[in-house]
Amino acid sequence: MIYYKTKDEIELIRISCLLVCKTLAEIATILKPGVTGATLDKRAEEFIRDHQAVPGFKDYKGFPATLCISPNEGVVHGIPDDKEFTDGDIVSIDCGTYLNEFYGDAAYTFAIGEIPDHTMKLLQVTKDSLYKGIEAAQKGNRLGDVGYAIQNYAERENGFGVVRELIGHGIGRNLHEKPDVMNYGQRGKGIQLKEGLVIAIEPMVNQGSKEIAKSSDGWTIISRDRKPSAHYEHTIAITKNEPDILSDHSFIETSIKKNANIRDISRKK
Q1: Does residue 196 lie in a domain region?
Q2: Nearest CA among 181, 196, 178, 190 for reference residue 237
Q3: Which residue of 39, 92, 110, 222 has the smallest Cβ count within 10 Å?
Q4: 3-state DSSP helix/strand/coil percent for the chain, to nearest 5?
Q5: What percent of the chain is modeled with pLDDT above 90?
């Protein structure tokens, strides 16, 4: 069953999503070679709790951390550890918060130091594909239009592999709600987008094959060919006008611009 949100509920989800992005902005201030995922995770949990919220991911179905940190070939669900990041790493970080009885969710992929051009293109295309999907999320369109927009841009136009098994989702009082939001699909297919629907759109795109595998820790998903993978996510609400982006990557990008260790990934307009 799909739960459509009131305007007041959407505003509460926005508050949670903005805290997610401010948390990602906070950890972006300290992300550099030599820092570990465990350090970032500790800072994120402290930041979230200092803002009277609860980490949305920690203990969710047994996940042991506040952040999902997935470097390089990591797609999603990476467990923060004590391995130090190095120059040339890309790091996908997914974060959730729970505040005022509603969840927020967003993700961003960071590029540390000198990154090969083809990998930088992967990050930019993945980020741009997110906004292609959002642009297609108009009232009256269908979920297949969103998935098609992402897949067409990332896969057909740019030759990268869109992961099939991992998808976006509805969000609200629960972290994962109906409907499932695919990053691939056919135009005109799927449920119709109606005002009050709140969904997390999150393309996960591999530099090589779309195929994935699960690591021995039981959580971390990696690209099967071990080539880099990128992940960007926004939570949006369907309105009678344009889609309303409830999360805000600009907080993160402001921190990136102040950190000489992280490359800026601009978005094509």
Answers
A1: yes
A2: 196
A3: 39
A4: 30, 25, 45
A5: 97
> Long-range pairs for 60-67 at CB < 8 Å and ≥24 separation?
60/96, 60/175, 63/219, 65/41, 66/41, 66/95, 67/27, 67/37, 67/40, 67/41, 67/93, 67/94, 67/95
Q: Is residue 2 part of a domain?
A: no
Query: 116: cis peptide before it, omega within 30°?
Result: no
Per-residue buried b or exposed e for 184-214, using 16+ beta carbons within 10 Å of the residue's own CB: bbeeeebeebeebbbbbbbbbbbbbebebee
**Residue whose pair of structure tokens reads 């999360």 in the numeric block:** 247
Supply the pLDDT for residue 20: 98
Read off the amino acid at residue 162. V
Nearest to 143 by CA among 241, 21, 2: 2
Q: How many domains does the structure of the chain reveal?
A: 1
Q: Where are the alpha helices (DSSP H) in 34-154?
A: 37-50, 117-136, 143-151
Asked, for residue 268, whether it belongs to a domain, the answer is no
What are 51-89's pLDDT values in tens digits?
A: 999 999 999 999 999 999 999 999 999 999 999 999 999
- Please give the pLDDT value at position 211: 98
**Could you tell me the pTM of the whole model?**
0.97
pLDDT of 266 above 70:
no
Q: At what angle do helices 117-136 and 143-151 cross, to 10 degrees?
A: 160
1, part of any domain: no
Residue 137's domain is classified under what CATH number? 3.90.230.10
